[in-house]
Design brief:
Strand content of chain B: under 5%
Largest sheet of chain B: none
Low-confidence stretches of chain A: none
Distance between the termini of chain B: 56 Å
Low-confidence stretches of chain B: 1-5
Helix content of chain A: over 70%
Oligomer: heterodimer
Number of helices of chain B: 4
Radius of gyration of chain B: 18 Å
Strand content of chain A: under 5%
Mean pLDDT of chain B: 90
Chain lengths: 165, 121
């Protein structure tokens, strides 16, 4: 293990911890804003009773958290790719990590975040342009989530293929 | 959490939407071509050498970097506005965001420019 590889793993871990903390903070804030009137019970019961507005709110939180997560990775990715112009062998040194099982799993998670952020983001652009009902907006959200899962699982199978076979 | 009302920020709004549509194409295209069509273990320096000898990919990566930083910069600026209402903390976070984004832009565009110069020379 080289010093550069250690630095990469340390930075990636720090960014992941930061994203998880941000996610927890954003979720807590959303729950606080949500307030009373939605009744008690476990989170699964509350999701079952979720109104159109609740669905929008959770989409809002997920959009924000996935946005921060993808940006955090971008910071690291720009630096590791830029190593290439300094030294091809140093770039390869760090790049070798991307082929490991752990990084392939990470890549799948990153892809899910990118897919959800993209499809939900396009839904938000559509909602800005067209005047649609809350019900249609929620249906579009279902389409965005379903597309993310289907494409994410299909692409994930390709990414994890060397580990699975 | 206090959410203070603010004037609509038209520029940020338009930049967010324009870059959003652009990035949907550029980022998903980048991911599909770079990380699905090619296994990640095969995208070492020889792959980057081939990739960055193409003007199309140099332009693609430069545009993607600029659009992403504009999109994330505007987005996070508004996130900070909402989540850090205290002025001193908000100013510090805005400054950190600006410095980080500019640093990443500088590093990324320098790398692409150096690769482009080598490809030509």
């Amino acid at each position: 293990v080289t010093a550069l590889q250690t630095a990469f793993v340390a930075l990636l871990t720090a960014l992941l911890v930061g994203v998880v903390l941000f996610g927890a903070f954003a979720t807590r804030t959303a729950l606080a804003i949500r307030g009373s009137g939605t009744g008690g019970g476990s989170w699964i019961h509350r999701i079952g009773r979720a109104s159109d507005r609740d669905a929008q709110r959770w989409a809002f939180v997920a959009h924000r958290v996935t946005g921060v997560a993808v940006f955090a990775f971008l910071l690291l990715h720009v630096f590791d790719v830029s190593l290439y112009v300094i030294s091809a062998s140093r770039f390869d040194d760090v790049h070798r990590l991307y082929g490991t099982a752990a990084m392939r799993v990470f890549e799948c998670l990153l892809l899910f975040a990118i897919l959800f952020h993209t499809f939900n983001g396009l839904r938000l652009v559509v909602l800005d342009v067209a005047e649609l009902s809350a019900q249609t907006a929620r249906r579009l959200l279902v389409v965005a989530v379903a597309s993310s899962i289907v494409l994410g699982v299909a692409a994930g199978a390709i990414i994890l293929q060397p580990e699975l076979s | 959490v206090t959410i203070t009302a603010r004037r609509p920020r038209l520029v940020a709004f338009v930049v967010m939407r324009t870059t959003a549509v652009l990035l949907a194409v550029l980022v998903l295209g980048h991911f599909a071509v770079t990380h699905l069509a090619t296994d990640v273990a095969q995208t070492g320096s020889s792959f980057v050498l081939r990739r960055w000898s193409s003007g199309l990919w140099l332009a693609w990566d430069a545009t993607m970097l600029a659009a992403t930083l504009a999109h994330a910069g505007c987005g996070l600026w508004l996130v900070i506005d909402e989540m850090a209402p205290e002025p001193s903390r908000r100013r510090a976070l805005h400054a950190a965001l600006a410095v980080t984004s500019l640093a990443v832009f500088a590093v990324g565009t320098t790398a692409i420019a150096v690769a482009a110069t080598r490809a030509v020379g």
